[in-house]
Amino acid sequence: MFHRNRILWCRMGLAVLFWAIVLVQPADAAVSIEEISEGTFPACYRVSNASVEVWVSRDFGPRILRYSLVGEENLFAERPDIVLKNEWGAYKLWGGHRIWTSPEATPLTFAGDDQPVTLTKRVSDEETVFQFVGSAHPQTRLQQEIHLALEPEGTTARVRQLIRNVDDESKEIAVWALTIMAPGGRVFIPQPSRQGRLTPARALVLWDYTDLSDPRWSFGKTWMQLRAEDRFKGRQKIGLGNESGWLGYLKGKTIFTKVFPWSGRWEEYPDFGCNCEVYSDGGFVELESLSPRKTLAPGEAIAHEEVWLLLPGVDAGETEESLSAALEDHLPRIEQEARNLISTY
Known about the structure:
By secondary structure, this protein is mainly beta. Helices cover about 15% and strands about 45% of the residues. A 10-stranded antiparallel beta sheet has the order 7-8-9-10-22-18-17-12-15-14, covered by helices on one side.
């Protein structure tokens, strides 16, 4: 009995030590993590620096439910009311950021992720990465991971998403990274500015319900824009091979930018060559990026990285020209992040 009790106490001690290492930070740590539960959210891990905070689900997912300036409005939507039912059960949307598989198919894409998340921490000279690993789904035999790193200062969040095949058979999928934004803003997608090409610049992909005459759309020389307001009714969606490697969302005077790779080979991507899609239904709006398709051998994973930035205090106005002027000082940073990700392909 004494021997068994000693083993039990040793195990408990190791568990306490692990969480002390992961959750307790030095007082001067630039990036910290803690457990938190507040408002509409269940238990989460809060990763933060002096500028921004990111909340990651603890008991399901992994999902990112909040990304905001510290103590300020969540730029991500909070939608615990939406439940997508399928033959394997139900998928609770929650809002925020999630990982799906593409091409979209029922029930594979909507497989639930209602099991607890495992957290580990990886420290290097360059950065501290928090790895949130979900449970393998019993039907899909796919496992999702989110690796999150904040820079010591500023609003940059690096979000690396993985889907791992834990089945005995190969599977062909693409990573589909979807971010639901808080309503009341507008999406903007840069138009490529290269001149002199005789060949087509890009393809614009439409869905059966897409209506380009809808007043929420605006197609200009510099930007494609979509307003996400509750007064608009009905679904809208477009997709494209976005060679600029980013898109943004303006709400009030804060801009969220989502940066992602583009391989330059449209035939590798799902949905007629899309690495970027936008979906809206009234005030509901999603900013979506996709990886190339890949056939995963048993045990193999596919990774897809995004870089997020928050730009506060931006007076973007209502015109193409005013939006361009407001972004002028920020574009070099955004475009450099996009080049860095594109170079990985």
